Amino acid sequence: MAAIRVxxxxxxxxxxxxxxxxxxxxxxxxxxxxEGLKPGGFEIRTATLDEPEHGLTDDVLASTDVLTWWGHMAxxxxxxxxxxxxxxxxxxxxxxxxxxxxxxxxxxxxxMGTTCSLKWREAAEKERLWVVEPSHPIVEGIDEYIELxxxxxxxxxxxxxxxxxxxxxxxxxGGEVFRSGCCFKRGQxxxxxxxxxxxxxxxYRDENIVRVLAxxxxxxxxxxxxxxAFGNRKPLEKLG
Amino acid sequence: MAAIRVxxxxxxxxxxxxxxxxxxxxxxxxxxxxEGLKPGGFEIRTATLDEPEHGLTDDVLASTDVLTWWGHMAxxxxxxxxxxxxxxxxxxxxxxxxxxxxxxxxxxxxxMGTTCSLKWREAAEKERLWVVEPSHPIVEGIDEYIELxxxxxxxxxxxxxxxxxxxxxxxxxGGEVFRSGCCFKRGQxxxxxxxxxxxxxxxYRDENIVRVLAxxxxxxxxxxxxxxAFGNRKPLEKLG
Amino acid sequence: MAAIRVxxxxxxxxxxxxxxxxxxxxxxxxxxxxEGLKPGGFEIRTATLDEPEHGLTDDVLASTDVLTWWGHMAxxxxxxxxxxxxxxxxxxxxxxxxxxxxxxxxxxxxxMGTTCSLKWREAAEKERLWVVEPSHPIVEGIDEYIELxxxxxxxxxxxxxxxxxxxxxxxxxGGEVFRSGCCFKRGQxxxxxxxxxxxxxxxYRDENIVRVLAxxxxxxxxxxxxxxAFGNRKPLEKLG
Amino acid sequence: MAAIRVxxxxxxxxxxxxxxxxxxxxxxxxxxxxEGLKPGGFEIRTATLDEPEHGLTDDVLASTDVLTWWGHMAxxxxxxxxxxxxxxxxxxxxxxxxxxxxxxxxxxxxxMGTTCSLKWREAAEKERLWVVEPSHPIVEGIDEYIELxxxxxxxxxxxxxxxxxxxxxxxxxGGEVFRSGCCFKRGQxxxxxxxxxxxxxxxYRDENIVRVLAxxxxxxxxxxxxxxAFGNRKPLEKLG
Lengths: 240, 240, 240, 240
Fold this sequence. Notes:
The first copy, chain A, is of the alpha/beta class. Chain A is built from 7 helices and 10 strands. Chain A has a 9-stranded mixed β-sheet with strand order 2-1-3-4-9-8-7-5-6.
């Protein structure tokens, strides 16, 4: 079986502008995610916003099985043309893993059809992600919960369609809960939203988070099948 | 309890251009749907594409609990501005009932996030809609299936997100099946896609179809609740 | 429309044995629930474990639209014969609202097919139930969350099938979350599991809880349809 | 990665009693299924009703990752004790693939909590199974539909809980449809119901059916995780 081809996309602006972020992710969030995925045996490359076509040319998209997406301060700078291509590729089979503040990214919002709004707070709170779907391949190797010492809080109501599978629900000390691991199927493709990952905390170096990401890549990888077919059709049976 | 306020929207082009359609629906498809809904005790008005703002002004939308949508040949003529307002109202709570060829309408596609493509054939085939969710209010008063003598065929794969509730599955003599009654929840609102209703057949005068429409209006009507709230939040509990 | 006929079932043992419970619910938990439902315009009666056939004779079940169930210390005393009849009536269309410790009741476990186990703690903790399905009739009139000052904690993993609709997720100060408002459809009937309601706290006098119960009764009430039909069938179409 | 350990269970009565069945499956349905799965690289054994403990001893169950189940004329001869053990193992993580007339088997009914009844007809009809969830690993390598020339018909309403994932919907020439490929998650385990497989047709030698079975084994195989934990718990956070 050929290796799953992963493209790790990152906005890569915070890391250049804010020292606090640069300290946590000196080579960018994408470099940390790529490093975490390496032991998974994937074929990995990275792409960032300020490259031509945001690094997501037709060739790159066509040869990507799973795209991971981290963005935050510059969602509006992503071109609608690239967004349209990314979404079309998802419907064709490419997996999309949307991370943390990517809830507000254009491709995720377009695929969900809702505002994807939520409540938030930056107070370096603890997060405890409880597994609520224990048979799911995304939680292979994960205990009954994952604990992260310092995170940005996201709280309900999270304006997404009802997830096709709800894998994690998060607890925060400030009194909120959040559906933090959500699976969606769209066309021939799959989307996983995974909440953790604020730019000022080294969350993408946490071994449980890295494990979930690798599991999610495998879950979201396309199955081999003919392209979806639509349009006018002759009857398969003789009409009376 | 105040009456549910329904706006029946119709493209209303076929009925003016094609004699075959005019014969079936002389006053327009909207008039037939409105007439069918009348015994339900709803407050009903109609709106059509060629009215200013397609008849869907801010005032109309703000005072609509459930919007039914029939369109076919002129989806592209619906202004993106009106589409954005319709979708925003759905997320705020307005019900949307998308009928037949409305699967390709802009508001439905935007709310689904997928292509909403399907297979089709015009051969005046029989359709048998089987109830697969018998506890659902949308099938109140409906037998184990609904039969329609002459319909346009729609076949799978229907490129929609997995319905939150699947109520009807259709059988066609040419060999196809179709998920023909599909419930979706989006934000604070609800969407029902209902397949039957080709312009050249008097389907909106069928008593079972009319019954499903009235049931669907009741199911999709908004519940009274505060508006959804988002954004930055103080903790509800004292942080340690 | 005829009034919905509700039977409020209660084990009614704690209230006789434990003074702390008697003080909160002097006439039994069933009396409090029945009183709370009264303004809803339902036709209400009660039934308890120590009545003949637990108060759930064939006549009572046949004339019950929605059954609410509270039990805790004596699940094992409920006869398997009555359990079989209750489950059969649910599949025929009777609504079942399972309350709090009723997660371990025989009818609920039989209808779920899983252990329905969970984690728990009696520490009079706060509970905050967040609405995660804001378009649902069960949350009509409910704000973005319900707060209860003193409750028994239930924590994930809650061993139920994935709910058909997840309406509430609870937060507890001890660090747990819980899927606390869960809708299930079974046969022609509907089941709502609602977590709050420990016997030592006056939770069934809380106005939000009472409101959810009344909403749930309406949601779970049967729709009028022919009985489900099964077995050998002649073809509906001529076989070639 | 260790090979997935599959136990192929068969009632194995028809094949001894009825010549028509013996001709199609001379060594039993289990032998045909086992042969079909062989290229998948699984570790396969078989078990049948008339062996001691139906071939499903504690040791066999403990060392089974996925159990496939075919039964029809002797569901009542399966001991309740073995049924309880099979269901407990599913909740612990063992996959269960229930085939055709196994819809009425004791383990499937117990795990579903419903009657699992349906409509049926033996008229050697064609079946066309349409894929309605094209991103699912169970349809890897499968075209937009599977066609079987001669089958027993099963029709809706199929009295199961709403599937967690609906993969196939079948069309029959007699006018019926059927949800014929249904995924369920129960506890830490997974269940796949797959309709085709009548004893008088060589369906388990069809290459598409064999492919789906192998895919389903992989989908249903347990993930490695700690056992589910329940019961009384100390708080994870300091209570105020």
